[in-house]
Amino acid sequence: MVIKKQQGFSLIELMIATALLSMVMFSGYFAYSLYTDKWQKRTELFWQLNKNSLGLEAMSRVLEATSVYIVKNQNDKYAVMFNGTQQSLTLVSNSPIFSSSSALVSFSLQTNKEGKSQLIYKELPLKNRMFINEPVNVDWQTSKVLVDDIKQLTFQYYGWESLSNAVNGNLDGAELELGSKPILQRWYTQHTPKDNRIMPSKISVYIKNNNDQETQIQIDLVTSSYTSLIYYLQEDV
Fold first, then answer.
1. Which residue from 17, 97, 123, 177 has the highest number of Cβ atoms inside 10 Å of its Cβ?
2. Does a structural domain hold residue 6?
């Protein structure tokens, strides 16, 4: 009867097996880390887009409730409080984000410490407070980032450029002087109470993020601000 001795693995075999197992584990870990990193980036992008969408929705609601708030401008003439450039906008809204009553609000493009551009919303409640003159230095009560990761932001305005243009633009053909043409509204990029005493009838907001994704929204405003101003002035224009 022959008894065979049980033999184990040699050191070289163990080293080869360990190396192969390490390669398999490393490959699995590498694939898992790639998947996890990709998933995390997708999740961060999802929440970023969701946050930005909520910010744009909040901005739309504030702008839709823009109030015909009359102040004295820098030329000491009565004008609607509405001051807008391509990258900033200040007005009075009846539906601000934080206040339960009307508030002076501001939207502006600003750069944070990390060098990222953001759409900043600021608010000052008008409860127990009233502006007679156009405010210059405002002590804002609340500030909030509405949209992050902005590459480009542009505000544009649609309407008449002056109070007299608005009045003439609303005249029918029978009231126009012989040979004159009706004045039409148009798009422009600068709106100040000093030069334009009424509100625009529309606002267009264009935003492009760092991934070159574009968003454009258009908000209709109160179209009769010129009649409110005329009624307030109680004089012919």
1. 123
2. no
